[in-house]
Design goal:
Layout: H1 5-25, H2 38-66
Helix pairs in contact: 1-2
Amino acid sequence: MKKWVRPLVGTVLLIVGVVWSLQGSGAMDDSKVMSGESQWLVIGLVVAVAGLTLLISGLRKLRAGSR
């Protein structure tokens, strides 16, 4: 079960980062606090990249363990 933690956390971070980036860029007007704020665009991009990194490394470990 521990093998799935890294890809799961990576997926969640990737989704959250993309949503924050979209809100920060003004593409999603769901939040009055975050919409159009460039700091949330940057924070979202950093979180999305971290999530993508965790997701890829976790999937590689899963593949290596199954061989």
